[in-house]
Amino acid sequence: MTERQPHGFWNFLCVFGRGMNVVRLVIINLVFFLFLFLFLLLLVGLFAGDRSERKILDSTVLVIKPEGRLVEQYSARPLQRVIAGLSGNAPKQVQVRDLVAAIDAAATDKRISRILLEPEDVQGGGFAALREVGAALDRFRAAGKPVVVWAANLEQGQYYLAAHGDRILLDPQGGVLIAGLANYRLFYKDLLDKLGVDVHLFRVGQFKSAAEPYILDHASPESKQADSYWMGGLWDEYLSEIAKLRKLDPAALRSDIDGLPEHIESTQGDLGKLALNQHLVDGLATRAELEKMMLSEGVAPGPKGQGFRQVSLARYSTDLPSDGKPSVLASGVAIVVAEGEIVGGRQPQGSIGGESTAELIRSARQDSKTKALVLRVNSPGGEVYAAEQIRREVELTKQAGIPVVVSMGDVAASGGYWISMNADRIYAEPNTITGSIGIFGMFFTVPNTLDKLGVKSDGVSTGPLAGAFDMSRPLDPKIGTVIQAIINKGYHDFVGNVAKARGKEYSAIDSIAQGRVWTGQQALDNGLVDQLGGLDDAVADAANRAKLGKNYPVRYIEAPLGGFEQFMVGLNESATVHVMQGYGIHLPGWLAQLPAMAPELSLLQTAQSGRPNVYAYCFCSPR
Question: For residue range 351-364, what is the model confidence (pLDDT) as tens digits?
Fold first, then answer.
């Protein structure tokens, strides 16, 4: 009996091992066939796209229907893009530069007679990005070509874009909903107290409120004061621009927006009719009535007499006119995009890495074709050391005799300003969010949490600093003194470097720093930026400083995507995602929205690292 037990057990292990091997093979095959299925879908989508291509004829309408978030640079995080695609909330990203380039090309393209803009599916993006696109639409109209806007429903960001059209038509069942700006955040102090987590925050700056959700259960008075000021400025700018474009009185427009609950009763709940009465739109029309209007105004009919002659943005972008463009091999302006959170090390495209973004600037500097550099910044900041790595490369580029101009996008605050400060000239849009010159450090300890679980921490060390950042132990007040001294020094360096770069006294910068956020217009008034303008203005300035004349190439310096990243990006931009959604395969929408709902959660990586980190970060994007 005893001799047979090991034998039986050995047989069991053998059978179990063979079973696990079978399971492993099944899983490998399932994964293989899944990728094969996705690859075939991608090929079908590409083949279908090739067959649908037609020559662009005269009197063609360029239909611009951007779907997804306006970005400065495509994200190369495959998983993030696929989750966004399958969630159905933000299936795509639209590069601002591609959209602007297509509109500008169409302005001089004799084949394009007008633009039909359908902005209803634009998601996210800030007002500065929308302003860049709006300026391109204005240039198109200045060329004598009309822009017609049609949508079922328009929210305030989409309407901001729509206002640049000659006519705005709304579906009779639709409406315009403009509510204003808000910046509400989640606060975690009570939750952390219940869990027994101690948060140690070290900061400099009266208004540096980025980490307040971890130490308070409400927004501080200073935070509310500062937020009210810059958001008020942003909202005033919005109302002023809309009123100018639509020939309305700004005060009346504000009153109409704030008085929606009262005004809606006058139309028995009909938002479309209310928008028409308030002159926010020019008419109500169904899709069929829109097509009929196009044909009545001389637009050629579509194939087989169906609809009107049109070309999509995606199709037109593959066939942009190239007449008169300088060779990319000639000397010109290089653009490096710095978009997203600033973190250490190497990061993929669409993010900012201390090493990787610095390397892009260095690569541009070492290229003999680069005669001027434009740094396009769209970042709320992040890790101080990573930002400093990038700032140093900007300084070295200037020392090499290459002019550097910064173009601020939606946000260039805190660390985003840190990497911008040493440029020869800084451009911002009036509605750019910038400033927030201040830093903080944060560290979590969990001795009380462990105590609740019946776990104790004990041991010895060779000195008072050894084990000081062990999360299982309370933080020694002496160590807190050390950290605060480091934060104080970091703030002094930040303000001192800005003062040196801007040619001002330390006290002058300190008075407008303190972690306070400003709009682009407010930053100009305070001397933190040099001029209001967009990316084109910054490029022209850089070219002028380099004495490049009027005809010069503009090149984007970007890290190449890996093979897997290219596949996933192409997959997400193809019809595959839509096919999967058509079969009901989708993820909960909140997965894609979670980072925007609670951006502060990114700071929890401090707890994982087991050490305090120093941040120049601003959670200052209104919703």
Answer: 899 999 999 999 99
